[in-house]
Amino acid sequence: MEYDGTGLVGWQKQNNGLSVQELLEEAASRLVGDAPVMSATAGRTDAGVHASAMVVQLDLPCHERLDARQIRDGISFHLKPHRVAVLEAAAAAEGWHARFSALSRRYRYTILNRPTRPVMDADHVWHVRRPLDACAMHEAAQTLLGRHDFSSFRAAACQANSPIRTLDRLDVTRSGMHIHIDVEARSFLHHQVRNLAGSLHLVGSGQWPVSKLREVLDSCDRRKAGPTAPSEGLCLVGVGYAQDPFG
């Protein structure tokens, strides 16, 4: 599924606003005669964060009466007028789980690097007026690849048992006025990608040398890293499995 996270409190149900999970479960419930529907997701996104390829598992009662197309189109219909839609649907294999079967998650963080404020990209980019050196950002990013203690890029509220994570990819590229930070790992710490983006911004703007990012990583001190980048620039763009569940 894909969704625009603007104005939503994130994936998970909360008491302080509307979530993607609540919208999806209510839409699915309406499709099956208002029976309760529970969901499991490949990952959680924070308030304001978007997704173009979130994978969600639904336990649909009476699902045998509906084919994949009817499930996809029916849930998407009931999701209106919210900017949330189901892209594909398929029956899950025995023992498959949206979260625990996932081998990787891919995110893209997008910076609009120009003097003029965004219009077409509003709520989907971090607008940075100061010129950024994407090549320097990419060079610094490569020093973080592999398995490390990412405490320096971990939110204080993170509930993960360990700060150890393995970054398989962290690429920074420029496409015109857009700078893309593409990151892939099996799992991430809370705010890890946004904290990485905030620190890479300091390298790109010339406030930090390329070597600084590895120093920050080795310090295992969140206070040494850059600020948390805004949520609107972040998008979940893929979840990897041993076999494509929609193939």
Helix content: 10-25%
Cα gyration radius (Å):
19 Å
Query: Separation of termini?
Result: 15 Å
Q: What is the typical, i.e. mean, pLDDT?
A: 96
Note poorly predicted spans: none
What is the tally of helical segments?
Answer: 5
Largest sheet: 7 strands, mixed
* Proportion of beta-strand residues: 15-25%
Q: Say how many strands there are.
A: 11
Q: What is the succession of H and E elements?
A: EHEEEHEEEHEEEHHE
Q: What class do helices, strands and sheet pairing give?
A: alpha+beta
Tell me, briefly, the overall form.
Answer: globular
Explain what this protein looks like in three dimensions.
The protein is α+β, with helices and mostly antiparallel strands. It has helices at residues 20-31, 68-78, 134-141, 192-204, 212-219, and strands at 2-3, 38-41, 50-51, 56-59, 84-85, 104-113, 126-128, 146-149, 164-175, 178-185, 234-240. The strands form three sheets. Strands 3, 6, 7, 8, 9, 10 and 11 form a seven-stranded mixed beta sheet that branches. A two-stranded antiparallel sheet has the order 1-5. A two-stranded antiparallel sheet has the order 2-4. Strand 9 (164-175) and strand 10 form a beta hairpin. Helix 1 (20-31) crosses helix 2 (68-78) and helix 3 packs across helix 4 (192-204). The longest helix has 13 residues, at 192-204.
Features:
alpha+beta, two-stranded antiparallel sheet, 11 strands, 247 residues
In short:
With 247 residues, this protein is an alpha+beta fold. It contains five helices and eleven strands; from the N terminus they run E-H-E-E-E-H-E-E-E-H-E-E-E-H-H-E. Strand 9 (164-175) and strand 10 (178-185) form a beta hairpin.
